[in-house]
Design brief:
The complex is a heterodimer.
Chain A (H helix, E strand, L loop, with lengths): L14 H21 L4 E2 L1 H4 L1 E8 L5 H9 L7 E5 L6 E6 L10 H13 L14 H11 L9 H22 L16 H10 L5 E9 L1 H29 L2 H25 L2 E2 L1 H31 L5 H33 L2 H36 L22
Parallel strand pairs in A: 1-6
Antiparallel strand pairs in A: 2-4, 2-5, 3-4
Helix pairs in contact in A: 1-9, 1-12, 5-6, 8-9, 8-10, 9-10, 9-12, 10-11, 10-12, 11-12
Chain B lengths: L1 H22 L2 H4 L1 E2 L1 H4 L1 E8 L1 H22 L5 E6 L2 E5 L6 H12 L3 E5 L3 E6 L1 H26 L5 E5 L3 E7 L4 H9 L4 E11 L2 H6 L9 E9 L7 E10 L4 E2 L3 E8 L5 E7 L1 H12 L6 E5 L2 E4 L10 E4 L5 H13 L6 E9 L1 H54 L3 E2 L1 H30 L4 H33 L3 H34 L8
Helix pairs in contact in B: 1-11, 1-14, 4-5, 4-6, 6-7, 6-10, 11-12, 11-14, 12-13, 12-14, 13-14
The chains are: A alpha+beta, B alpha+beta.
Chain lengths: ~400, ~525
C-alpha cells in the first residue's frame, strides 16, 4: 500500500499563517501552565508525601478527610487510584514546615487508629506484618504441634508457612477476609485459626509511599531543569555542526514549540508532573529533533543537487518527498503508544500521553515550524549566520545559496 | 557476493545467539527495578554534627579527667560543636595544661591557653575526618542491621553531602525496616541514686542542694505487662551522669524468654566491658541499675550480687521489639542521628500489577506495529518484522549483558523503541520505493535506498541518543533505566535496519530473480 507518492503541496506558501497558529498554541500552552496555575506538580518536585493505601472494603474518601483534618491535614488530596474493585486510595499532602520526614507516619497512624481501632492494638496485623513476624507468632502458638520435634524444626516449619502466606498476600496486596487464608497450601486450618485468635486482620495496607523532603525536591527541580536545557543545547550544537546554524535554530524552535504546547495540554488534562514526565519530555525532544533532522537531511541533499534553486523551493520539495516517511513513522510510533496509553495502567499513563501528543505536535512542527524558522533566520541573518544590511526579499527571488 | 553473504549471515546469527544466551532465563537475568519488584528506596541524611559534638565532648572529658589526676581542679564546658573551654586555670597550672594538651589533643585541636582559662577549637581536618567516619560507620551499622533482617541484595551506599542511599528489594514490612535503620540505639548502664518519682519536679527536688553536677534525671515508660504497647505511666529516676559501661562493650545480644515467658533480651559483654561491669555492680550492691536506651530508662533492676559478663534486659517487649533491639544492639549504635530525606516504597502487588499491564501493552503494541508494516510494505514488511523481532531479542540481551535494571519507564522505553525502531526501516523502504519509481532496477534501488537513507538514520538517532545521555546523567533509578533501554534499543535498531535488513534483501535477491519488488 503506497501513500502519497509525488505530492506537490506547497507547504511554505502559508507559512506566515502557520507560524502565527503555532505561536497561538504556544501561548495557550504557556498560559495554561503558568498563569492558570494548573500544572499538577507531583511530590518529586514540590516535595511532600504521597501515600497509596489499599483497603479491604470500599474506602470512603469523606471519612478519610475527617480523620485527616483532625491532624491538621484537611487540605490533603484524596483520590481513588486504579480500578473500582481495587479499593485503592492515594493521599497526598504538601510539605509541612518543620517536618522533613513528611506526614507519612501521621497519616498511617491516624488511619490505623480510626479503622482498626482499639481491639487490634498490640496485635500483629496480618495485612501489614512481615514474614518473620508471622513466623514468630506461629512459633509461639505452635498450632501444628511441631515443637515436639525440636525448636529448630518447628522454627523452620513455621517460617515456611509464613512465607506461603506472604506469597499469597503479595498477589492481591492484602487479605480481605480470614477466608482468604484458608486454602493456602501449607497453612493448616489450625494455623489459620491460631492467627485468627492472636492476630488481627487490618482494614488496610500501604502499597506505595513517596516521601520527598524539601532538599531533595529542590535538587530534583534543578536537575530536571538543567537536563532539559542542556539537552536542547546539545541538539542545537549537533545540528549546527552537521547542518548549519539556521537549521539548528529551526530545529530548536520546533522543539521548544513542541514542549510548550504539549506541556499546556498536559496541564489542561490535569496529569501529574513528576520525574517520569521529565523523562517523557526529554524523549519527546529527542523524537521531535529526529523527525526534523530527517527533513533537513533531505533538504541538504537537494540543496547539493540543485545549487541554484531558492531555499524555499528546496524546502517544499524536500518536505513533499519525505512526507510519506514522516507520516508512516509517526503512525507506527503512535500505534505503540496508543497501546501503552490504553492498557498501560495509571502509573505510566501520563508518560504515554506526553509522547502521544508530542509526536502529533512534533510531526506538525517538523513541517510547519522548523523549516519556516530556518528560512526566516536566513532572511534576516543570512546563510552561515552572517548578518545582512537589510532583510532580503523572499518568495520567488533566486538567491545564491552559499554553502 | 555469495561468500560475503555467508559471513554476514554467520555474524548475524552469532550475535543473535549471544543475545539469546545472555537473556535466558529471563526472570533470572534481567534485574527488575524497585518499582517493578516492590521494595524501598531511602535517602538518609547523617547528622554528622552529632558525631563531631560527641568527639568534642569526649576529648573535653579526656582532658578534664587527666587534669584531675594531676590534682588540677578544672572543669570544662562545650562552646560549640567544635570547640570547648576550660575554666579554673591558674598561672601555675597553665604550663601543666599546655603539657596535657600537647600529649593528648595536639593532633586534632588548636589551643588558646591563657592564665585563667583555655579555649580549644577542633582543626577542620579533624572535623572532616570525624564527619567522614561517621558516615562510613553509619553505612556499616545499617548494613549489619539489614543483614539481620534478611533482605536479598540490599544496596547501601554513601552519597554526597553526608547522605546514604539504601535500596531494599522485596520488603513486606516497610515500617519495621525504617524504624530499625533509624534507631540510634545508644545503650548505657547507670547507677540509680534515687527514685522512682511520679514527675520531674519531685525528682528535681532530690538532686541535692546545691544540685549535684554528677546526677541527672531520666524518664522511664512503665509498660503493661500483658500488652507491651500500652504505657501505663512515666516515672522519673535520679541517676549518675557517668556512663562506664555502654553498648560498645557488648559482645552479643539475643532475644529470649523470661520467667513468665515474656520476650526479653539477653546480652553478654566483651572482656573489657565485663571488667568494668563487674566493678560497677560489685561496688553498688543493693542499688538499682538503670538500663538506658537512647536516654530513656527501659528497666531498673536491683543489683543483688556482682555481675560479670552477662545479663538480661526486660521491660515490655513484644517478640518483634525484642528481636529488633537485639539486632540493633549487635549492630552497634549509630554514630549520629539520621533523618529520612526521601522514601519511595512500592508494594509488591503494585509492582506486579505494573508489570502485567505493561507487558500486555507491549504485546498489543508490537502486534499492531507488525500488522501495520505488513499492510504498508507487503512482503518487504516481513523483512521489517523480522528485523524488529531481532531488535527486541538484542534489546533484552543487551539489558542482561550490561546488568542494566529494567524499570517501569524502562518498559515504556521498550515499547517506544518498538514503535521507533521501524523508523529506520521506513526511511530505507521509502527511499527504495522512490528509486524504483524513478525507474531503477530492483538491485540498484535497494542499494541506493540503503546508501542514501543512512545519513538520515544516523543523524536522527544521534539526536535521540543525546537526549538519552542527558536523561541518564540527570536521572536516578527509574529514569536511568529508561535511558538505558532507549539507548540500547536505538543502537540495536540501527544495526538491524542497516545491516540485517540489507542482508535479508541480499539473501532473497541472490536466490530468486526478482523483477518486481513487493514493497
Amino acid at each position: 500500500m503506497e501513500l502519497l507518492r509525488d505530492t506537490n503541496i506547497d507547504f511554505m506558501k502559508y507559512r506566515k499563517f502557520w507560524i502565527i497558529v503555532s505561536l497561538v498554541l504556544v501561548g495557550i500552552g504557556v498560559f495554561a501552565v503558568f498563569f492558570h496555575g494548573n500544572l499538577n506538580v507531583g511530590v518529586d518536585f514540590a516535595g511532600g508525601t504521597q501515600l497509596t493505601l489499599q483497603f479491604r472494603e470500599k474506602p470512603e474518601t469523606e471519612r478519610l478527610r475527617t480523620i485527616l483534618s483532625q491532624h491538621n491535614l484537611e487540605d490533603a488530596e484524596i483520590t481513588r487510584f486504579g480500578t473500582e474493585d481495587e479499593n485503592e486510595v492515594m493521599i497526598r499532602t504538601r510539605l509541612v514546615k518543620g517536618k522533613t520526614e513528611g506526614t507519612r507516619d501521621v497519616i498511617e497512624k491516624a488511619v490505623d487508629k480510626a479503622y482498626n481501632g482499639e481491639q487490634a492494638a498490640g496485635k500483629i496485623d496480618v495485612n501489614r506484618v512481615g514474614a518473620d513476624g508471622l513466623a514468630a507468632l506461629l512459633l509461639a502458638a505452635d498450632p501444628d504441634n511441631r515443637k515436639v520435634q525440636g525448636e529448630d524444626a518447628a522454627r523452620a516449619h513455621y517460617a515456611d508457612v509464613a512465607k506461603k502466606i506472604m506469597d499469597k498476600r503479595r498477589e492481591t496486596g492484602l487479605f480481605t477476609s480470614w477466608n482468604d487464608l484458608s486454602g493456602i497450601p501449607g497453612a493448616s486450618p489450625q494455623a489459620v485459626s491460631a492467627l485468627q485468635q492472636r492476630a488481627a486482620l487490618g482494614a488496610f495496607t500501604v502499597t506505595g509511599v513517596e516521601n520527598v523532603g524539601p532538599q531533595i525536591g529542590k535538587e530534583l527541580r534543578q536537575q530536571g531543569f538543567w537536563a532539559v536545557a542542556l539537552s536542547l543545547l546539545g541538539m542545537l550544537v549537533y545540528i549546527w555542526i552537521r547542518f548549519e546554524l539556521r537549521f539548528g535554530v529551526g530545529a530548536i524552535m520546533a522543539c521548544i514549540h513542541d514542549v510548550l504546547v504539549t506541556l499546556g495540554l498536559f496541564a489542561l488534562f490535569g496529569f501529574e508532573f513528576n520525574l517520569t514526565t521529565i523523562a517523557a519530555f526529554l524523549t519527546l525532544i529527542g523524537y521531535s529533533v529526529n523527525d526534523t533532522v530527517v527533513i533537513f537531511d533531505r533538504i541538504r541533499e537537494n540543496m547539493r543537487k540543485s545549487r541554484r534553486k531558492p531555499l524555499i523551493e528546496v524546502m517544499n520539495e524536500s518536505i513533499n518527498q519525505t512526507l510519506s516517511r514522516t507520516l508512516l513513522t509517526g503512525g507506527s510510533t503512535l500505534l505503540a503508544l496508543a497501546a501503552l496509553l490504553w492498557l498501560g495502567g495509571d502509573v505510566i499513563r501520563g508518560f504515554a500521553f506526553v509522547m502521544l501528543v508530542g509526536i502529533l505536535v512534533g510531526t506538525y512542527s517538523s513541517i510547519y515550524v522548523a523549516s519556516p524558522f530556518a528560512l526566516l533566520w536566513e532572511q534576516y541573518f543570512g546563510a552561515k549566520g552572517e548578518r545582512r544590511a537589510a532583510p532580503a526579499r523572499t518568495d520567488g527571488e533566486a538567491q545564491p545559496v552559499r554553502r | 557476493m555469495k561468500r560475503n553473504l555467508l559471513w554476514r549471515g554467520l555474524l548475524i546469527f552469532s550475535i543473535l545467539a549471544a543475545a539469546v544466551a545472555a537473556a535466558l532465563p529471563l526472570d533470572k537475568k534481567i534485574n527488575l527495578g524497585l518499582d517493578l519488584q516492590g521494595g524501598m528506596h531511602l535517602v538518609l541524611q547523617v547528622h554528622t554534627e552529632d558525631a563531631v559534638r560527641a568527639e568534642t565532648d569526649g576529648d573535653m572529658g579526656l582532658l578534664v579527667q587527666q587534669a584531675q589526676k594531676e590534682s588540677l581542679p578544672i572543669s570544662g564546658h562545650r562552646i560549640s560543636d567544635t570547640s570547648f573551654g576550660i575554666t579554673g586555670v591558674t598561672p601555675e597550672s597553665r604550663d601543666k595544661i599546655s603539657e596535657l594538651y600537647d600529649k593528648y589533643l595536639k593532633g586534632g585541636w588548636d589551643s588558646d591557653i591563657r592564665s585563667d582559662r583555655a579555649t580549644f577549637t577542633m582543626k577542620s581536618q579533624y572535623a572532616t575526618q570525624t564527619r567522614q567516619m561517621a558516615v562510613s560507620q553509619a553505612v556499616q551499622t545499617i548494613r549489619n542491621r539489614i543483614d539481620a533482617f534478611g533482605v536479598t541484595e540490599p544496596t547501601i551506599q554513601e552519597a554526597s553531602n553526608n547522605r546514604i542511599v539504601v535500596q531494599l528489594p522485596g520488603v513486606d514490612d516497610p515500617d519495621r525496616v525504617r524504624n530499625l535503620i533509624k534507631n540510634t540505639a545508644f545503650l548505657e548502664f547507670r547507677i540509680v541514686r534515687n527514685g522512682p518519682f511520679p514527675d520531674r519536679q519531685a525528682a528535681l527536688a532530690n538532686l541535692g542542694n546545691p544540685p549535684s553536677g554528677d546526677l541527672e534525671i531520666l524518664p522511664e515508660d512503665v509498660r503493661d505487662k500483658a500488652d507491651a504497647s500500652k504505657i501505663l505511666e512515666t516515672v522519673y529516676w535520679v541517676v549518675d551522669k557517668q556512663r562506664t559501661v555502654t553498648g560498645r562493650d557488648l559482645k552479643n545480644a539475643r532475644p529470649s524468654r523470661g520467667q513468665l515467658s515474656e520476650p526479653i533480651v539477653e546480652f553478654s559483654l566483651n572482656p573489657e566491658g565485663a571488667e568494668k561491669f563487674s566493678e560497677l555492680t560489685g561496688s553498688n550492691i543493693g542499688k538499682p541499675l538503670a538500663i538506658v536506651l537512647d536516654g530513656r530508662i527501659v528497666s531498673a533492676p536491683r543489683i543483688n550480687a556482682r555481675i560479670r559478663d552477662s545479663g538480661i534486659i526486660e521491660g515490655g517487649f513484644t517478640e518483634e521489639s525484642a528481636q529488633d533491639l537485639s539486632t540493633v544492639l549487635r549492630s552497634g549504635a549509630l554514630p549520629a542521628s539520621i533523618t529520612y530525606l526521601e522514601e519511595r516504597t512500592v508494594g509488591p502487588s503494585l509492582g506486579r500489577d505494573s508489570i502485567e499491564k505493561s507487558v500486555l501493552a507491549g504485546v498489543v503494541g508490537t502486534a499492531l506495529v507488525v500488522l501495520y508494516m505488513l499492510v504498508i510494505y507487503n512482503l518487504s514488511g516481513l523483512n521489517a518484522v523480522l528485523a524488529l523481532v531481532l531488535n527486541i531479542v538484542l534489546l533484552f540481551g543487551g539489558l542482561a549483558a550490561f546488568d542494566a535494571t529494567l524499570t517501569l519507564p524502562g518498559i515504556a522505553g521498550v515499547i517506544l523503541t518498538i514503535g521507533m525502531a521501524v523508523d529506520a526501516n521506513v526511511l530505507v523502504f521509502e527511499r527504495i520505493r522512490e528509486e524504483l519509481h524513478a525507474g531503477r532496477t530492483v538491485r540498484s534501488a535497494i542499494d541506493l535506498g540503503f546508501e542514501k537513507a543512512l545519513s538520515s538514520i544516523v543523524d536522527g538517532n544521534v539526536t535521540t541518543l543525546i537526549a538519552a545521555l542527558f536523561l541518564f546523567q540527570f536521572g536516578t533509578g527509574p529514569i536511568r533505566g529508561f535511558a538505558v533501554t532507549l539507548t540500547i534499543g536505538l543502537l540495536a535498531s540501527m544495526f538491524t535496519a542497516v545491516f540485517v535488513s540489507r542482508w535479508m534483501f541480499d539473501l532473497v535477491l541472490s536466490r530468486f530473480r526478482i523483477q518486481k519488488l513487493s514493497i
